[in-house]
Amino acid sequence: MKVVIAKDKLELGRMASEDGAALIRKAIGERGEANIIVATGASQFEMLSNLVKAENIRWDKVTAFHLDEYVGMDILHPASFRLYLWRRFVSQLPLPLRAFRYLDASSSPAKEAKEAGDMIRRHPIDVAFVGIGENGHMAFNDPPADFETEEPYIVVDLDEACRRQQLGEGWFKTLDEVPTQAISMSIRRILESKHIICSVPDRRKARAVADTLTHAPDPKYPSTCLKTHKSVSLYLDPDSSSLLPKEALKG
Q: Using CB atoms within 10 A as the burial measure, which of 150, 157, 196, 206 is most buried?
């Protein structure tokens, strides 16, 4: 795992986007197309704002997949990840994507998870852009996460720590408004990506970052799964890296 500590979250976003953009260009150059996974949340603001401005990417040759979405969420709700991705990514690109597989969990989440899973199986992922939650979750795989399922997308229950994070980021007015379930890409499917770009700014993520780098892979710390992957770049800022012991940065 490559660990990069940027001088601030703006530099973090720029560096992570440049890394990911180079990998997208490489995939298109080698195969004439690229497949990517795009995450949401406050941790991705700076990365996405830079990625959409990356030069020399034929976005019309890129197929993108949605990482997770709340069950029962209308697309026009301010917390909708479909709306987030449209506003911050898809609509900002200079060319339309070849395809974007949004997740619509508003009515039949199990059916949607199966259909999205069937599609992603046909599109090996070149680059996954992800983050780490305050409780260490990857996508919406809260602890203890399922490290074994081979289903690409699963319907999961959201724990209170996860729901409080969504409230704290300002997506909802009260905790009761935060959904209790979501469709999430599974841990194994994330790890099947050829490359993973993980952007994690802010002090509120410092404990989760420290747990990620100091624990062996363990479902109690979902983001430790990244240690089992051969090509992960973890981008941090001074705040999110503030609890790291020096030995955790070696290698």
A: 196
CB atoms within 10 A of CB 244: 18
Angle at 11 between CA 57 and CA 69, to 5 degrees: 65
Q: Quote the tokens at residue 126.
A: 């070149």
Question: Residues 178-204: pLDDT tens digits?
Answer: 999 999 999 999 999 999 999 999 999
Q: Domain range holding 235?
A: 2-249
E strands present in the chain: 2-5, 34-38, 62-66, 68-70, 99-101, 127-130, 153-157, 181-185, 195-200, 232-236
Query: Nearest to residue 58, comparing CAs of 33, 85, 91?
Result: 33
Amino acid identity, position 129: F
CA distance 249 to 251: 6
Rounded Cα distance, 202 and 197, in Å: 17
Q: What is the CATH number of the domain that holds 73?
A: 3.40.50.1360
